[in-house]
Amino acid sequence: MGTLGLKKYVLIILVIIILNPFIFTSVNGQSDSRNLKITAIPTIGLSQLPEINYTELDAAWNDQKIEMLIIVNDSSFTDAVTPLMEWKNQKGVKTIILSNYSSYEGRDKEEKIRNMIKDFYEKEKIQWVLLAGDTEENLIPIREVYNPDVVEVGGESEYSTWDDDYKPTDFYYADLTGTWDDNNNSDWGESAEYNGENDEISWIPEVYVGRLPASNPTELSVMINKTLKYETDPHVGDWMNKMLLAGGISSYSPPEDEARLTEYIWENYVIDEAKFTHLAKTTSSFTPTIPLSPNSLGSLNSTSFRDEFDSGYSMVIIAGHSDPTQITDDSHEVYYKNTDALSSTNTEMPSLFYADACTTSSYDKGDNSIGEISITRPDSGAIGYIGGLRVNWYYDDDEKLEKLNRANAKLFWREFFVEKKFQQGRALYDSKVTYMNSDYFVRGEASMIQEWQRKNVLTYNLLGDPELDVYTKVPAEVPDYFSGNIYEGQCISFQVEDNLGRTVPRARIHLRTLSGKYRTIYADVDGLVEFRLPSEAYENYSVIITGHNVVPSYFNFTTLPDTDMPELNTVNYDPINPTATDNILFSFNASDKHSGVESVFLLLSKNSFSDFSLTRLSNRFNENKQEFNVTLNKLKPGEYSYLIITRDYTNKTSIFYEDIFSFSIPKLFTDFVLVVASIMIIGLVGISIVVVIIGMKRHKKNIKNLR
Ligand SMILES: [Ca+2]
Ligand SMILES: [Ca+2]
Ligand SMILES: [Ca+2]
Ligand SMILES: [Ca+2]
Questions:
Q1: What is the pLDDT of residue 30?
Q2: Do 503 and 548 share a domain, yes or no?
Q3: Which of 122, 264, 266, 565 has the greatest number of CB atoms lying within 10 Å of its CB?
Q4: CATH number assigned to the domain comprising residue 605
C-alpha cells in the first residue's frame, strides 16, 4: 500500500498558480518550492472541472411538491377546511384544497374526482387525500364496486335491503393505477372472473385516503377543528398512552372467541408502547391472560366498554358482530350503540377507533352509523374511525389469526405499533398490502379472485384525516438541533429524539426562509435525517419539527459563510509499485470544516498535465463523507504524475501537488516474456510427449484414459 502522509505544500486555487507561480511561495511562506512543477501545469484551468450541479438541491428548496389534497364539493366548503390546510402547510405537509373535479374527464363524478387525484399523483408527490364531504347529496360520492360476495357465499345477504352485488369503497380513490373498468361496462372494480380477462383493481394503493363525512360546512368545521386541536393543542393526559381492547364471542358453537385476537394484539404489539385495558367475553374454551399492572383485564358487558371508552383512550379496538347502530356478539348483549356514540364523553380525548365488525361505518347509508356519529362528534368520540361499510368475514378455526377480519385487524395494529406507522391512513392502507402479501395468500389458500377477500380489503375504510399522527404517549418537545454554527451549503444530520430521549420515527423537519425556500425532510423509522442547505450565507431559517408524540417545536438559525478551504488529508494508492496489469486503487481523505467536501478530482497525466485524465469522486447532497476511493483502469507503461483537487459545496477549490506525486508503470517485457513462454511451452510439450510415449509403452491397454 502506497501511503503518503500529505503535508499541505500546495493549497491555493490553480488560477493563482497559473497567473504567478511566485504568489504561491509568498502566500504559503514556503521558501522551499523545490517540489512544485508549476511550469508544467498551465494547461489546467478550473473551468475544465465539471461544475457543481445544484439543480436537484435547488428544486428541493424552491419547488417542493404537493403532498396532500383536501377535496371538497364546492367553494362553500373551502372556508371550513382552510384552517387545516394552513396548519398542514405550516408543519411542512404541502397541501391544497381542490373542488374543480368537473374540469376532469370522467363518466361520473367519482371518476372525475379520481382523475383529478391521479393528475396530482402524476405531477406532484401526493401521499394523502382527505375527502371532505359525505357521500350523500352527491357531495363526494363513493365508488360502488361489483362485489357479489354475499351472493357467492350463499344464504347470506347484506344488512337490511342493501344491494347484494354492488358495494361502496373509498379504496377507489387510493388505487390510482387500476383501470377500475377494463371492459368499459360501468361495472366497476370487477374481478377477472366477471370481467372475463383482467382484475380491474390494482391492489397496491398509491395514496392514503381518509374521509370526513360532512353533510354541510358546519359539520365539516366541527371535524376540522377537532383534528386541528388534536394535532396542535391536545388535552395532555394519560389517555394518550392508553389502549382499550374488547373481544366478544363470534360464535358459541363452534367456540369463536375474538378475545384471542385482542389478547394477541396486546401481547405482541401494544405492550411495548402503551398501557391498556382488555375487556373480554369468552366461551368456556378460552381463558384470557391476566396482564401485569398497570394494565388490566375486565369483563366485556353492556356498560364496561362504553364506560371505559368515555374515560379516554387514544386507541380502541372492539371485535364482535354488529349492525350499523350497535356492536354486539353471539350472546346478543349490546356493547356499544350509536346513541352511546352520540353522547360520548371522552371530551378532548378522541380515539382512533377500530371496529372489527360488520357495517358499523356505513356512512353512505344515512348519518346514523356508529362510525359516522363517532367521527362527527365535536371534541369527543373518534379522531379516526376504521370500520366496515358492509358485511365482512371471518373463518372458523382461524388458529393463526391470519384470515379476513382477524388478519385485517391484527395487521393494522402490527403496522401501527411494530412498523411505527402511527399515521392512521398509512397504517390502514399498508396493512391491506401486508395482508395480501401474507403467507395465507402466498401458500395459495386465499386469492383476490375471491369476492369475500375483495370485500374485506375494500370495505374497511378510514373516517378521519389520513395524515394525522395518533398519540401513543404524552408528547414532548424535541431539542434544538440548530443551536451551533450552521454554514451555508452544510450537510445537516441528526437523529430526532425528543427531550425525554425517545426516538421519533419518520419525524418531519420543515425549514423555510423569508426568501421563499420551503422544504420538508422526513426522518427514517429510526429518526435519522440528513439533508443539505443551499449555498447561501446569511439566510434566516425558521424550523418546525413535528411528528409522532411530538409537541410542535420551533427553532431558527442563520447560515454563516463558508470561509474554510477544502483539505486533502491523505492520499494512498495500491499497489505502491503498479504494473500494467494492475488496477490501481486510489483512496483519499478530504475534509472541509464548513460546507463540506463536494468533490475530489484526481488528474493523471503522462506529460506534466499537458493533457490528463480526470476522475471525479463526489458526495451526494445528503451525505458528507470524507473517504473517497476509486479503482482505475489498467494503465499503459510510462511515467505518471497525479494531482488532486478538492472542492467544497460553496465552490472553493484547493489543489494538491508535489513532485513525489508520481509513479511509473514499467514497460511490458513483451518480447522477453514471449521467448520465455515459448521455451516453456516447448518444454512442456516435450515433456508431455515423453510422458505419453512412455505411458503408451507402459500402458498400451489404457491409452484412451491417458488422453
Ligand atoms: Ca367493468
Ligand atoms: Ca395501484
Ligand atoms: Ca352519511
Ligand atoms: Ca469550505
A1: 29
A2: yes
A3: 266
A4: 2.60.40.1940
